[in-house]
Amino acid sequence: MNVPMSAVERSNVFYDLLAKFAPAGVPTWVLALTAAGVGVGILITFVSVLAMFSVWMERKVSGHIQCRYGPMYVGGWHGWAQSLADGIKLLSKEDLIPLGADRPLFMLAPAIVLASIFGALTAMPLTPSVYFADIDLGLFFILAMSSMTTIGVVMAGWASASKWSLYGAMREAAQVVAYEIPLGLALLVPLLVVGTLNLREASELQSGWYGMHWLVFQNPFVFPALLLFFTAALAETKRAPFDLPEAESELVAGFMTEYSGIRWSFFFMEEYAAMFLMSVVAAIFFLGGFESPVTHLAREQFGADSPIYQATAGFVLLLKAMFGIFLMMWLRWTLPRVRIDQVMTMGYKYLTPLALVCVLGAGVWEAIF
Amino acid sequence: MDFQGIHDHLRAIGAPGLLGVDEPRAMVPGEKPGHPKDPGRAGDPYVLVDPNKIVEFIAICRDDPRLAFEILMDLTAVDPKADDPNLWLVLQLLSIERRHRLSIKALIPKSNARVPSCTAVHRTAQWHERECAEMYGIKFEGHPDPRNILLPDDWVGFPMRKDYEFPKEYHGISCE
Amino acid sequence: MSSESRGSIHLDEAPRTLASGEREFMLDVHTQDLEVNMGPQHPATHGVMRILIRTDGELVTGAQPHLGYLHRCAEKIGENVEWLQYLPYTDRYDYLSAMNNNLGYSMAVEALMPGLEIPRRAQMLRTICVELNRIGSHLVAMGTYGLDIGAFTPFFYAFREREWMMALFEKICGARLTYSYIRIGGVFNDSPPGWLQEVERFCDVFEEKWQEYYDLLVVNQIFVQRTANVGVISKAMALDFGLTGPMLRGSGVDFDLRRDMPYMLYGEMTKQKVFDVIVARGEMGTLGDCWDRLYVRVVEMMESIKQVRWCLDNIKPGPVLGDIPKVLRIPIGEAYVGIENPRGELGHYVVSDGGKIAVRCRVRGPSFVNVAVLEELLPGTLLADAVAIVGSTDVVIGETDR
Fold first, then answer.
1. Smallest Cα–Cα separation from A13: which of A130, A135, A138, A136?
2. Which strands, in side-by-side order, build the sheet including C333-341?
3. What whole-number distance in Å separates Cα of residue C144 and Cα of residue C147?
4. Is A27 exposed, middle or buried (0-12, 13-18, 19+ CB in 10 A)?
5. By CB count within 10 A, which of A217, B20, B49, C182 is most buried?
6. Are C153 and A341 within 8 A, CB to CB?
């Protein structure tokens, strides 16, 4: 365990596969780059498919909450191909850049936003042995990368040369900065219990009690921290009830108003990718990650190396993340929007002190027990 | 109070500018509605007021405890005929406390259509007077914000007057 | 709005020389207020209205509504078409409560025809239609207000009931939105068989669903936080601005034309104590805030149901149109009749010279008067509150501009 391994060798399963099948004489760095490229490709595909599925899910969930069906025709069964059709439509749209817009910033903003979320997602493990990068500072890396989306949003609002977009950007900056603090503090609580920032290891350490030794059950302060984290995550991802930056009925689409076609779809993908990211972090650091009675059973039956176990574990994590996304959607279509000064009040005056109390309590509990 | 009572009270307190009344005639027995047997008038009674004293008049209507007309419901103008030398300025007052209404009419000459503005007494008059001004060409003296309200700022003419000619085009757009 | 728009930081003093001999260095920061256009195309202005807003950050420092984008010269048209031909135009100013508009116009013209008797069944049908339309209009008000605040779902629930109401109206007069059903002298035609039973079923279902709207939107904590203490209209301000209807009752003034200056069957209903007038009591926040106005609108819907039920209990067969000639010549006269629209008092001032065509057909739209209050209410609020306040006035631009 303490043998220092080169970063490349430890990086991912694609590298191992390539190393097995590559012709002799190919230098390591070529293999590493190719492995990284394959990993990136798989990640982009995964996130795109996920975003498309989430969009379809959002439309069905919102439809059913509002007493209607949602997409029903495209593709046959309940309109499953609706997102695909929408994606193709967006690709074929005219690329409009407003006349007074700051062109370089305008074009750069969606790229920054999407790139930072993709970067954050590289720390996420797909299954216990398949991951893009095994980062020891996994959680820290995720938080840092996901904060960079704010830069992109503010850029988008400014570069759009529209006063309403500017409002959206200003609100976004204020809101995200306010909620970074409770987000981080709420995550400190499970960290105190589990002791590692690495997502894969954190998941492994919750494997007791037949797969139910989740962090929420290990320390009584972790459950309030979960609620705080979830609220702060809603604010970070600009989801209702904190969706002021893109408040539809006030600012049309806030900072995204002037974007159309493929550029807009970048923002859209980023929103669902960020929701997925926050759900995965919640799933791993609060709700057991890969662990559940089913994975425990799979591990007993088939062993820790078998592909069945890997697939089961990955599926369990995906299910938990999807439940988190469903919860976010449910809240969006039920609750009205909170006003910006109330958002800030909540963030600074209520969530932050509560998070601090949770951290203190968790620390005391850990010290005693 | 009914209209008779209101009018008597107005006369009793010496409301400024009160010129007269006009009341509808009673129905003639055997008369079918829509086929009047003799000329006369149907509808509501109204009080005729001197246009220059109208601000004081409605101030008294608002402040007098037995009248108590807190709300100016409507302020509008009528152009009865193309060759009539006068425009009518018609106000409707409502009292919430006393549950009664009053119609006020003032005759304004078309050649010199000026009236003092009632905005100081009822804030709601501000927008009604703007509409009157742009539609009929009445100048409301002392109005704090005399801009066009429904028509564009560069509209020519007073549309609601009976002798108004529709423009043939507006900024190059044909109005035929 | 004044030509100079000062920002939030004003440096009026000259830099001083401190005791140590240094000169104070002041950064000359001039911020300018931002002038933004809310509308005419905007999701939250309920139509084509333009409000020029001057803001300092998120704080609104000035507001100026600009109207006229939907001006369709209804009053000029009234002077050029015959009495009955004008009726479809009345549908179209406040298109959300077209039955009320028809009623107002018909009653004003009927006031000029003394001795005209409107059959009782016609009055019953008129009342049923008018109150059902009031429910429909308040449903839209509530649903779109929820949309403005960010609650997307109550809108769909409200429209579920509104669709049923519109289907009922389609059965009785053929149109879903602009009815031209209430005519001078009565109503256009009798209700089809089974219609009254369906109205009763609607009332039963609506009473259950009303509780859903109340729980989901009106007492939702976030909604209350967004609307309580926002846009407070005091009683004096309401009277000065000529507000009527829910705007006035939301400020605590107990006045409703149906009860206090009754017309049609409302006098009988008042004597039999069929319905109450809902006046806000400032339960959440200050009396006269946006929440109070929405509360009045939502609870009024239940009172309308009571009135509809009374009519259903007391309606009897009979003629539905009074005895009016085919070619209508209205006697010389002028009349003003005001009725209680869902938005306030809708007044029609009609002048006739004895002919087939009106001399003047003035419409006093309550929304026109309600919009004027925005100039006074908006400065001093936050931008998100501005949206809440505009939504709480429940303006329909068709009525504002006519």
1. A130
2. B42-43, C333-341, C344-352, C360-364
3. 5
4. exposed
5. C182
6. no
What local confidence, expressed as pLDDT, does residue A4 receive? 42
From the list A170, A336, A340, which residue is nearest C222 (CB)?
A336
Neighbours of A1 (CB within 10 A): 2
Q: Is the ipTM of this complex over 0.85?
A: yes
Distances (CA, A) of C25 to A25, C7, C11, C28, C31: 68, 21, 12, 9, 18
pLDDT given for residue A247 in this prediction: 60
Please give the structure tokens belonging to residue C330. Answer: 């209205």
What is the value of pTM for the model shown? 0.84
**Segment A244-255, tens digit of pLDDT:** 766 644 555 667
Q: Nearest CA of chain C to the CA of A96: how many Å?
A: 20
Best C45, C222, C226, C230 residue to mutate vs chain A (most A CBs within 10 Å): C222
B99: closest CA of chain C, how far (Å): 7
Distance of residue B83 Cα from the nearest chain C Cα, in angstroms: 13
Task: Write down how long chain C is.
Answer: 402
| Listed residue (B55, B57, B37, B60) closest to B47, CA to CA | B57
- Select the residue of C328, C362, C372 nearest B76 (Cβ to Cβ): C362
What beta strand segments (E) does C142-263 contain?
A: 182-183, 186-187
pLDDT in tens, B55-74: 988 888 888 888 888 899 99
Tens digit of pLDDT for each residue in A121-160?
Answer: 888 888 887 777 778 888 899 999 988 888 888 888 888 8
Contacts of C380 in chain A (CB under 8 A): none
- Distance CA(C349)–CA(B76), nearest Å, equals 9
Residue-wise burial string across C14-51, b where 16 or more C-beta atoms lie within 10 A, e elsewhere: eeeeeeeeeeeeeeeeeeebbebebbbebbbbbbbbbb
CB C82 within 8 A of CB B34: no
For residue A272, give both structure tokens.
């669902």
> Is the pLDDT score of A256 beyond 80?
no
Q: Which amino acid is at C144?
A: T
Tokens of A274: 């960020």
